[in-house]
């Protein structure tokens, strides 16, 4: 594995922030893992679509390119597939759909790599990774051992896992195993999907139709990182108690909220931010997207620190107006 010095991270993050890494390597073979060590800070990078670089990284960036898609078990009902962490997420989703394996279609077009998907238990359009996740293998950098993680071991939650919490920075995910259905039940409970299928004239949707509908919705709502730098939702949707949500609803009847299974209530952060007047606001090259207030954008040459400062102002104003604390979803480096 080659180690380069002073490498620009501009091509490696979807926010299109210019910073550099002191050391940089491409990890394309499992045999290269053994040379990694903890004497300098390590940062594992997939597609860089959930990161905000606020300064040069004074350590070793490892760009994960471990590839491979391998069926490890198949019967009449389901298939177990092991996928390399460096495979591009959307390419894997398309591969699964071409093979008639159901379960990932609602997660179409999410940027990034397969190996990062468990880190925040990616989710969209009524589905989360946890629903098709079977297991993963990860390299423990300090002990140089490969550890197996079951679904329970990963402690998945809304945009959370053990790898974002207690085990942060300790492991490199090498591959993820998925359990996909050969007799798929499609999930079109998320209203916008049914509307899009109607527009497409689809009466009996198959997994490919659901994927196409999700792609069309995403393309109409979210900025394309190839055109304008961003990392998707910058904040998580906050959860509050039912009592608190009810009080807010009296003061703000337009409040957008959803019931969680544990009895708490999730609020649409995009709505809260828009109500504070941030939608479409631009500060230099940093801004709040004009169509989706939950997405912060880089119009050109914004520094990570400017985007972070804007996010702090947004957090403060949502706190002041609604008494609700917004947590960032994006990893600040
Ligand atoms: P990176 O940004 O490279 O890394 C993210 C984190 O994971 C970092 O902490 C990194 O160190 C760690 N990491 C990465 N790979 C590994 C590995 N192999 N082992 C250990 N740690 C690792 N997310 C959603 O959940 N739902 C969405 O609908 C969604 N939509 C998006 C839309 C847009 C336009 C964009 C830009 C982003 C969106 N995201 C969404 C966020 C992002 O796509 C996901 O979080 C994705 O999983 C990040 O993958 P990545 O490979 O780019 O990760
Ligand atoms: N809304 C506003 N104003 C805005 C944005 C949204 O009022 O500026 C309202 C919408 O009208 C809607 C509600 O908020 O009623 C929810 O909006 P949307 O359906 O766009 O979803 P979201 O909550 O903003 C979440 C995820 C996305 C995921 C979509 C679709 C989080 C943090 N974000 O966004 O994930 O793609 O749902 O399922 O949970 C990501 O994590 O990066 C991401 C893009």
Task: Assign an overall shape.
Answer: globular
- Strand fraction equals 25-35%
How do the strands of the widest beta sheet line up side by side? 6-7-12-10-11
Largest sheet: 5 strands, antiparallel
CATH fold-level label of the largest domain: Uridine Diphospho-n-acetylenolpyruvylglucosamine Reductase, domain 3
Could you state the order of secondary-structure elements as H and E?
Answer: EEEEEEEHEEEEHEHHEEHEEHEEEHE
Please count the helical segments.
7
End-to-end C-alpha gap: 24 Å
Structural class: alpha+beta
User: What is the count of structural domains?
Assistant: 3
Task: State the total count of DSSP E strands.
Answer: 20
Mean pLDDT: 97
Cα-atom Rg, whole angstroms? 20 Å
Quaternary state of the chains: single chain
Based on the structure given, which CATH architecture of the largest domain is correct?
2-Layer Sandwich
Query: Can you identify the CATH class of the largest domain?
Result: Alpha Beta
**Uncertain segments of ≥5 residues (pLDDT<50)?**
none
Which cofactor or ligand species appear? flavin-adenine dinucleotide, uridine-diphosphate-2(N-acetylglucosaminyl) butyric acid
């Amino acid at each position: 594995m080659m180690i380069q010095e002073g490498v620009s991270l501009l091509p490696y993050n979807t926010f299109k922030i210019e910073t550099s890494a002191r050391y940089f390597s491409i990890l394309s073979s499992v045999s290269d893992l053994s040379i990694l060590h903890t004497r300098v800070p390590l940062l594992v990078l997939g597609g860089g679509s959930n990161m905000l670089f606020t300064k040069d990284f004074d350590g070793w960036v490892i760009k994960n390119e471990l590839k491979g898609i391998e069926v490890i078990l198949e019967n009449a009902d389901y298939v177990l597939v092991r996928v390399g962490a460096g495979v591009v997420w959307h390419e894997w989703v398309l591969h699964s759909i071409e093979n008639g394996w159901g379960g990932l279609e609602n997660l179409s077009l999410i940027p990034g790599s397969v190996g990062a998907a468990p880190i925040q238990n990616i989710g969209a359009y009524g589905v989360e990774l946890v629903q098709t996740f079977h297991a993963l293998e990860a390299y423990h950098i300090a002990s140089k051992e490969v550890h197996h993680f079951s679904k329970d071991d990963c402690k998945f939650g809304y945009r959370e896992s053990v790898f974002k919490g207690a085990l942060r920075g300790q492991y490199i995910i090498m591959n993820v195993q998925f359990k996909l259905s050969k007799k798929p039940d499609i999930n079109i409970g998320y209203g916008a999907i049914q509307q899009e299928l109607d527009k497409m004239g689809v009466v009996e949707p198959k997994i490919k139709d659901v994927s196409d509908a999700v792609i069309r919705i995403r393309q109409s709502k979210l900025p394309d990182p190839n055109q304008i730098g961003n990392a998707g939702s910058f904040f998580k949707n906050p959860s509050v108690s039912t009592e608190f949500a009810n009080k807010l609803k009296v003061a703000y009847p337009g409040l957008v909220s959803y019931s969680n299974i544990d009895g708490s209530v999730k609020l649409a952060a995009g709505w809260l931010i828009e109500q504070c007047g941030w939608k479409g606001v631009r500060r230099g090259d940093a801004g709040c997207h004009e169509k989706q207030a939950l997405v912060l954008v880089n119009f050109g040459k914004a520094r990570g620190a400017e985007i972070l400062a804007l996010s702090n102002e947004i957090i403060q104003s949502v706190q002041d107006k609604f008494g609700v604390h917004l947590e960032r979803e994006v990893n600040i480096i």
